[in-house]
Design a protein that fits this description.
single chain; Ribosomal Protein L4, Chain: A; 6-stranded mixed sheet; 6 strands; Ribosomal_uL4
Length: 206
């Protein structure tokens, strides 16, 4: 089992704890990590592009001139694609980009990125994260004490003061254990986790 130091909010080491190898010591599966990130980005796409085809453009109900005898090429509608103001050929329509991967694969991907953070020593455990008031300056001090700036902060429970204090720091994101995802763990340099949240992660994913 991997051992990590547990720090307090002042950045001092107060104890150490062992991590469960079934969550934080698995074999890293890069393919599933890649698929999990692709899925999350694809599922976030809106797919709301739209252009009108010739059947949807306003006007063009009558034939602009007779079929023969004018010297012009024959035309059936002023809203055909070759006309200015005409419809678009193969116009894009709203679509759903999302796709699914198995729950088991998602879990393996998440365990893989958590394992990589532990092996890179970018997994910081704190005994607790509590603020008496909403104060961004105080939260910045905590980050400085832990020697990190760009961090994903994982909480074991809803903590309004901590969440609100971190909200204005664009290099920080807070999440609860049930909101953990592969993309966020990879996006932020360091994962800061409360001791209680580590226990919750092990209970959920072991």
């Amino acid at each position: 089992m991997a051992k990590v130091a547990v720090y307090n909010m002042e950045g001092a080491e107060v104890e150490s704890m062992e991590l469960n190898d079934s969550v934080f010591g698995v074999e890293i599966n890069e393919h599933l990590v890649h698929m999990a990130v692709l899925q999350q980005l694809a599922n976030n796409r809106q797919g709301t592009q739209k252009a009108k085809t010739r059947s949807e453009v306003r006007g063009g109900g009558r034939k602009p001139w007779r079929q023969k005898g004018t010297g012009h090429a024959r035309q059936g509608s002023t809203r055909a694609p070759q006309w200015t103001g005409g419809g678009m050929v193969f116009a894009p329509t709203p679509r759903d980009y999302s796709f699914k991967i198995n729950k088991k694969e998602k879990r393996i991907a998440l365990k893989s990125v958590l394992t990589s953070k532990v092996s890179e020593e970018k997994f910081v455990v704190v005994d607790e994260l509590k603020l008496d008031e909403i104060k961004t300056k105080k939260f910045v001090e905590v980050l400085n004490n832990l020697k990190t700036q760009k961090a994903l902060v994982v909480l074991d429970e809803m903590n309004a003061n901590v969440i609100a204090s971190a909200k204005n720091i664009y290099t920080v994101k807070t999440a609860q254990v049930n909101e953990l995802n592969v993309y966020d763990v990879l996006k932020y340099d360091t994962v800061i986790v409360t001791k209680a949240a580590v226990k919750n992660i092990e209970e959920v994913y072991a």
